[in-house]
Amino acid sequence: MNGCQTTKKTATIPQTDSSTVKPSTPVAAISAPDSVPVWAPRKGNYNPERTKKNDLLHTKLEVSFDWQKQYLNGIATLTFKPYFYPQNTLELDAKGFDIKSINLFDPASKSLNPLQFTYDKRIITIQLNKTYKRTENYQIQITYTAKPNELPAGGSEAITSDKGLYFINPLGTEPNKPQQIWTQGETEANSAWFPTIDSPNERTTQEMYITVDTAFTTLSNGTFVYSRTNRDGTKTDYWKQDKPHAPYLFMMAIGKFAVVNDEWKGMPVDYYVEPAYAPYAKDIFGRTPEMIEFFSTKLNYKFPWEKYAQVVVRDFVSGAMENTTAVTFMEAVQSDKRQLLDDHWDGIIAHELFHHWFGDLVTTESWANLPLNESFANYAEYLWAEYKYGKEQADYLGQIEVEQYFAESENKQEPLIRYRYLDKEDMFDSHSYAKGGRILHMLRKYVGDEAFFEALHQYLKKNEFTDVEIHNLRLAFEEVTGEDLNWFFNQWFMSAGHPDLAINHTYTNGKIQLDVKQLQDSTYTPIYKLPIKVVVWANGQKTLHDITITQASQAIELPAATKPDLVLFDAESQLLGKIYHPKSSQELAFQYYNGPTYLSRYQAIAGLTHVLEEAEEDSLVNKAQSMDNLAEKVAADALKDSFWGIRQLAIKSFEKSSGAQGEAIDNKIQEMALKDPRSYVRAEAMNALLNREKNYIDVFKQGLQDSSYTVLATSLFAYFNSGAPDAAQQVEKFKDYKNTDVMFTVAYFYAEAGDSAAYSWFVNKLTTTSSQVQAQLLQFFAPYLLRLDESKQTEGLKEIEKMATESQDFQVKLGAYQALGLFADREDVKEMRKRIRENEKDEKLKNIYNMIP
């Protein structure tokens, strides 16, 4: 599942500089003794893996649909045997069904014998015809109707709904939206459309008979066997998967898809997209065969399934889902060639593909162990970027992961493996994804590449087609390395928090004294064992030292013939921790020119940017000394850096001023705005030029012709904010663009201008775009309405209320309710919000409403 990642990871440079940002003060030092920090681990009840009583061996489903009522009519034939102990009852998960019959099925005679059962709309408890031993199989056949829309609403931030089965535009009444049916099973939502043991520690083979109108294409797990035409004009497609997997990985997708065929070593690799995007399917997904080959080789474990398909659906409730052999993606992935000029979707594609080893082949035994799925899928993004686009790009992505985790850690710090979660949906967070991926990177750096990938191979081979917990991973690494790694797994996987380090170094009498303090609150966070590499540059020589920090306060002596030019702690930039190591401008400059990694150069530029900002503030007192010359020189050189992320950051360092070089810097940034090979750098340069005293309106107008949507949107924003007399006419040229960067820029202009003629544009976009886009457009539509007359305002507010009550999307409903808050002084709006609160069925959303003033 890629619930936490719904956007590409290249548009924004993370801003933390570990050389200059001070560490957090330990909470214990500033809080009353009996107080608990806001981020402290929250302990719920213990959540073990589900007890295995009956083992589900095979699932055969025969399904058809009532589009009008949004029902699924199904027959499920399920094969079981007792797991170990004899059993005379069977419990199945089945949410909100109408049960028509439950029978014992005899496959030899095809006879059906009714069984007694009770049903509370969540669990079916079936009385078997006898007590079965673990050597005896039996089959149950259930005829039922699933009614997903009548279930209580639920979900999480990562997976916004848990209905399991979704009808999109079922009556065909929504313009510009295809009719589709699709499913989403994680965590335990597939039991909303078929009866099963809905637990990750269960595995079953499957058959799926899907009956639909002949105009539709179907997709499911496994291999397509045949399609049968029925007398009533429908067809039944038969899909079969012979290798077992967890019930949450079952899937269906039904729609009028274009299917673009590809292959890997003779295995089908297919891309299901809307027909308009068929010409671009291989531009989007075409590197998939190369990814399969790369991961198969890296893991020394051939892709384990019989096919690989990827389908894009409308209004998906997450970023993507790793259903075995048939991955589902959100519609934002559909892109044309121009959109792909800015960036690709390789990260999310690699993420879901890697799940086919880590998650689908070897599955977490319980949701408490979810990082065994998601941390690996997250790290796959790094591995693919490292292989395909180079280590600097991979480290850039890794840095974003670090920032995501640190942002979450301000309010939440939990063990990565959490048996005492409050809700299983809480596991889908930046701990399981971002932090977990970075921990795997540290483990790789500690044991070395050869041992790391050999351990992963052994983990997969020993546990293939089974469910696991974190200790299975530890044991694989211990077997390969011969080292007891409890210390690593206990502090990184089983404990909350991260190290918060203060570093200081001094030089006397041929020795460097390195003082390291661990400042994290040890009430909740361990004192870490940290194997770290330190690089010392002195007298033209570079010396690498391996040290290990084990104490809260530790002093380490390192030899150096002369005073060092630079001491670089964590030379490989691999530690998931906050590091405060103050350095002079000279040291930071040396680090930029000599640092071994992208991150060390990044930290140097970020640190020098602070120098430039301080110099800019000092200019209020003494303008002649407005810039630190060394810092400015390094930043100017960084404008020519080989890696685009450093160039982008260097432009930011000149955001407020061009320093002593003045016009030369401005000219360089202008050149970059028009000619830099990376679109995000061109966009950053356009943005920087907007803040100059000189008006660069002609440059912004040239940017309107840029091939990149990102540059176009930034240039359009800069153009109308620079006072261009024909701004409104230029905006009109781009109002029908589907690209969201451009669309939101147009929306911003309309909101600022308050032109009543733009009303129909807003309403059209709010009714024809995806839910994700609608939620963001509401942020512009509400301020826009503030500028209109009362009559038009009232009309618009009714549209917002309609979205709050009729949308199926959590974020759209919440955004609509919040948008109405801008008009909270109006009596009719007070009534609207009251109606919305009273009629909302999602308790989580209702609670949020009650907290909003």
UniProtKB/TrEMBL annotation:
Disordered: annotated span: 1-27
User: Keyword Nucleotide-binding on this protein?
Assistant: no
Sequence ranges assigned to domain Aminopeptidase N-like N-terminal in this UniProt record: 58-249
Q: Does the keyword Membrane apply?
A: no
Enzyme class of the recorded protein, top EC level: hydrolase
Catalytically driven reaction(s): Release of an N-terminal amino acid, Xaa-|-Yaa- from a peptide, amide or arylamide. Xaa is preferably Ala, but may be most amino acids including Pro (slow action). When a terminal hydrophobic residue is followed by a prolyl residue, the two may be released as an intact Xaa-Pro dipeptide
- For bias type Polar residues, the affected ranges are 1-23
One of the record's GO molecular function terms:
peptide binding
Cofactor(s) it depends on: Zn(2+)
EC numbers: 3.4.11.2
Q: Name one GO cellular component term.
A: membrane
Q: Which keywords does UniProt give here?
A: Aminopeptidase, Hydrolase, Metal-binding, Metalloprotease, Protease, Zinc
The text of the family note is: Belongs to the peptidase M1 family.
Name of this chain's protein:
Aminopeptidase N
Organism of this sequence: Rhodocytophaga rosea
